[in-house]
Design goal:
With 259 residues, the protein is of the alpha+beta class. It has one domain: 4-Layer Sandwich (Deoxyribonuclease I, Chain A), CATH 3.60.10. The protein is 20% helix and 31% strand. The protein has a 6-stranded mixed beta sheet. A 5-stranded mixed beta sheet has the order 5-6-7-8-9, with no helix packed on it. Helix 2 crosses helix 3 and helix 4 runs parallel beside helix 5. The longest helix has 15 residues. The protein is globular, with a radius of gyration of 17 Å. The relative contact order is 0.19.
Length: 259
């Protein structure tokens, strides 16, 4: 594993959060995937209450990556959940990338919420069906910070192709963050390929996030370039879905434009 980066004392701390929100649904046991399966297609007051609680948490962070946010379909009451969370948290910038759509019933999306406005936001479809990566750039030239948000497939071969694509996007960029539900463990072949092709470093600290009621698998990640110092990485104790939110406090190299 790469040696930890030296903290950049002159740079302000940046707080990141990655969260698979399951379209606002709350699952607390495996059997609830069956007993609460109605929540996959129907809206409810519980979902709005759950989003409001999450918004109060989001307000404490600077850059938030969402996975499985609903882009506005029947199951969310036709609410764009990324926009709702941004407005409810008081953070001024948001963007989203709708991908998997099931008629008018469900419309999953990756989401980005940020305290500062990126200089550019791009979205790319990933190899496979209904997956994508949202890429935000803060600053310009080689001193820019790139933040990628992704939700990868369940199958290892699909993930391998998807992470190879993301590696191409991040290749040559020295200051990068990739966060999201990558559906693979830190020592997986897929992530080893990613580390070999980019400046992203293997994580020195691993935090299990799934399932939220008894976390055993570290499949949610906040990965950073080797010149970015991770001062702390932790899971939030409150589950808003079947994944625990993953948080990190980082410091950027002094030359990188503050976010």
């Amino acid at each position: 594993m790469n040696a930890p980066a030296v903290p950049h004392a002159d740079a302000p701390a940046l707080r990141l959060l990655s969260c698979n929100i399951l379209a606002g649904a709350s699952i607390g046991r495996y059997h609830e995937y069956v007993t609460r399966s109605w929540s996959a297609i129907l809206p409810s007051r519980h979902k709005r209450s759950n989003l409001d609680k999450l918004a109060r948490t989001i307000a404490e962070f600077d850059v938030i990556g969402l996975q499985e946010a609903d882009a506005g379909s029947m199951r969310s009451g036709f609410l764009n959940q990324t926009q709702y969370l941004a407005e409810a948290s008081g953070l001024p910038f948001w963007s989203h990338q709708p991908n998997r759509r099931v008629s008018h019933v469900a419309h999953s999306a990756n989401g980005l919420i940020s305290r500062a406005q990126p200089s550019e936001v791009l979205d790319y479809p990933l190899p496979g069906r209904g997956r994508g990566v949202l890429l935000a750039r803060y600053g310009n030239d080689r001193d820019a910070l790139l933040v990628a948000v992704a939700h990868l497939s369940l199958g290892p071969q699909a993930r391998l192709r998807q992470l190879a694509f993301i590696a191409e996007l991040l290749h040559g960029h020295p200051h990068a963050v990739l966060m999201g539900d990558l559906n693979c463990d830190p020592d997986s072949l897929e992530l080893r390929v990613l580390f070999a092709r980019t400046a992203l470093a293997e994580p020195l600290q691993v935090r299990p996030t799934f399932p939220s009621w008894r976390p055993q698998r570290a499949i949610d990640h906040i990965l950073v370039s080797s010149d970015i110092a991770i001062e702390r990485i932790w899971t939030l104790p409150v589950a808003f879905s079947d994944h625990l939110p993953l948080a990190a406090q980082i410091r950027l190299p002094v030359k990188v434009q503050p976010v």
